[in-house]
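Severity: low
Component: inverse-folding endpoint
Summary: output formatting inconsistent between runs
Steps to reproduce: submit the following structure tokens with default settings.
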């Protein structure tokens, strides 16, 4: 791993390590994959406005989310089926999160059970949740998360139906063994169904779930609820009005609706309507420490990283995940220093200029 210079290089290592079906599952997006490319490329159109002659001899990257301190504003996004990447699955990822002093959002579609992840280490864990047609199943998972010491629920709201992921269809992707739901419903699908994951989702996910049902979720848990999958000011305002405790600006890693906007391009409109009332997190396209800085300058409290974590896991297990997080932290620290920001609180909107602002300045 000493020869790996940046996070992007883990993707090639993961490609070599994984069967094609699993690699395609992790790296693929929906349909033409326009949004998949845009999520990353949009960061390249944001430029810095660095300040000089600032004392940056000491850099403090630490922050807190919902009162939980983390070493840097870089959290682990919820991604499913980590045992496709490594035999230790989510337990290895959680150990890396604990070692790096950050928060891991654990997918309810994890290979390991919620309890196994909880008992593997002392990482702060949030549970990512889908709502199923069988609400009793959803309620059982929430109660288990509470009992296992999870600190928040991250409700994914952009999957009334699964997006068209053509690589999975071509590969006839086999759905993983979802141990969190053993004995509750079957994950078996016919081989002719194309993507087995899509077939499973269409059978089990609740496409009728809507804003009114947030109150139902709140009635079954005392944990804070964050909503993941917001892309517009209109929905951000509805989320605040619904009383949620946080928002994740996300397009599901570009795996749902292709030609939805790159998340960094809509972050500000969400931040403006939220007005600091609840935390706003950014998910999608983060590959560099400079990306982390740009997201914070545009108003995010922290970013989530998904694919880079899985690539690190596939390449080198727990150590690979730790390396990914530490690389991003090191790059972020350098970016803070070179921008004249000794602490998170020093990062402001004036430290970056978006493409729209550059175009307007030429008129």
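Observed output (run 2 of 3):
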């Amino acid at each position: 791993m000493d020869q790996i210079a940046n996070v992007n290089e883990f993707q090639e290592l993961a490609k070599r390590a994984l069967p094609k079906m699993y690699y395609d599952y992790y790296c693929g997006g929906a349909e033409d994959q326009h949004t998949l490319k845009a999520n990353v490329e949009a960061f390249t159109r944001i430029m810095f406005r660095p300040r000089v002659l600032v004392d940056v001899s000491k850099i403090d990257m630490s922050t807190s989310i919902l009162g939980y301190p983390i070493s840097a504003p870089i959290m682990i996004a919820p991604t499913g089926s980590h045992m496709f990447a490594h035999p230790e699955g989510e337990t290895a990822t959680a150990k890396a999160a604990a070692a790096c002093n950050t928060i891991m959002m654990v997918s309810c579609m994890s290979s390991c059970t919620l309890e196994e992840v909880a008992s593997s280490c002392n990482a702060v864990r949030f549970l990512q949740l889908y709502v199923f047609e069988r609400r009793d199943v959803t309620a059982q998972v929430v109660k288990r998360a509470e009992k296992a010491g999870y600190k928040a629920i991250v409700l994914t709201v952009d999957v009334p139906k699964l997006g068209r992921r053509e690589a999975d269809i071509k590969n006839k992707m086999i759905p993983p063994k979802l141990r969190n739901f053993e004995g509750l419903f079957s994950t078996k699908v016919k081989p002719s169904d194309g993507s087995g994951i899509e077939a499973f989702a269409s059978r089990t996910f609740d496409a009728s779930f809507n804003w009114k049902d947030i109150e139902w979720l709140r009635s079954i848990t005392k944990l804070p609820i964050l909503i993941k999958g917001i892309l517009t000011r209109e929905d951000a305002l509805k989320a605040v009005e619904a009383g949620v405790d946080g928002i994740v600006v996300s397009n599901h890693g570009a795996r749902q609706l292709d030609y939805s906007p790159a998340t960094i391009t809509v972050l500000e409109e969400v931040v403006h309507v939220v007005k600091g009332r609840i935390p706003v997190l950014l998910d999608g396209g983060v590959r560099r420490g400079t990306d982390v800085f740009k997201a914070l300058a545009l108003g995010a409290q922290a970013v989530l990283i998904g694919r880079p974590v899985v690539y690190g896991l596939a390449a080198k297990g727990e150590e690979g995940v730790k390396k990914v997080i530490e690389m991003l932290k090191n790059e972020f620290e350098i970016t803070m220093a070179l921008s004249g920001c000794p602490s998170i609180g020093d990062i402001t909107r004036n430290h970056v200029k978006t493409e729209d602002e550059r175009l307007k300045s030429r008129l």
